[in-house]
Design goal:
alpha/beta, globular
């Protein structure tokens, strides 16, 4: 990001690292200064640590310019790998330089949940309680299949791909107690998620669409594996918060189902 000292306007540029020195020279000649660099890692998660290390070594700007690195879910394939990734990245980047992104939160409907609640805080707090709410459904249904994508999908499945990130974030947006200030938002969200009781096997359903193994075989012609990777999942969750105690939250997601929707 380059800032013009005379008009305080910003120029965002997308370029390879080797283009930076010439660009900065041109910018300096025109009275502009670099204020920061943003890197968005649109790559598989296994490449995050290596890329972050290269950015830190070869692309970190001179101070006072800042550095920001954005990475997308999934952050590892389980708790252990997620913790390892977090540890490796924190050894390379400062916390305020690293942004963990869930792109689903950028959807228009999802973005409006918190503003809608804030605009109707009193009504929401009085109406969305165990006394008035029978259940809450949070669904993400897709008509598309995994053909040509089983290389990625088979490693994660529906639970890691959508349920423990996209739908869990929406669950928090709907169920959490809104804080008085924006600075306390993450604390309030974390408190709600901590109140959610562990999912029970008897309240969880996993499935796989009919042609998934056929699509897997097409993508992996040298493999005889017949994976049982779930492409559909549904679970009934509860919170021990008094306001919503005993209200079932049903989260559901699936590939190749009857309609494409988010609700």
């Amino acid at each position: 990001m380059i800032e013009d000292s005379t008009c305080s306007c910003c120029l965002n540029v997308t370029l390879a690292a080797w283009h930076l020195p010439p660009l900065l020279c041109i910018a300096a000649e025109n009275g502009r200064v670099e204020v920061g660099r943003i890197f968005y890692f649109s790559v598989p998660p296994f490449a995050y640590v290596g890329l972050a290390n290269n950015v830190n070594k070869h692309c970190r700007p001179d101070k006072p310019a800042w550095l920001r690195v954005a990475i997308e879910k999934p952050f590892g394939s389980d708790l252990t790998s997620a913790q390892e990734m977090a540890s490796d990245l924190s050894a390379i980047l400062a916390e305020d330089e690293l942004f963990r992104v869930d792109h689903y939160l950028g959807k228009r409907g999802v973005k409006q949940i918190i503003p809608f609640r804030e605009a109707n805080r009193k009504l929401w707090d009085n109406a969305v309680t165990a006394e008035h709410v029978k259940r809450v459904d949070i669904a993400m249904k897709e008509t598309e299949d995994c053909k040509s994508r089983t290389g990625f999908y088979d490693e994660y499945g529906v639970v890691r791909d959508t349920m423990q990130n996209h739908l869990t974030e929406i669950l928090a947006f709907v169920g959490m107690d809104l804080p008085a200030t924006d600075q306390d938002f993450h604390t309030a969200k974390s408190a709600f998620l901590a109140s959610v009781l562990p999912a029970q096997a008897t309240h969880t359903l996993l499935g796989q669409y009919h042609h998934y193994q056929e699509h897997f075989a097409d993508d992996h012609p040298d493999s005889n594996e017949k994976p049982n990777t779930p492409t559909f999942g549904a679970s009934v969750l509860h919170t021990d918060l008094p306001r919503l105690k005993n209200v079932p939250f049903v989260i559901l997601s699936g590939k190749q189902v009857c309609s494409t929707s988010s609700a």
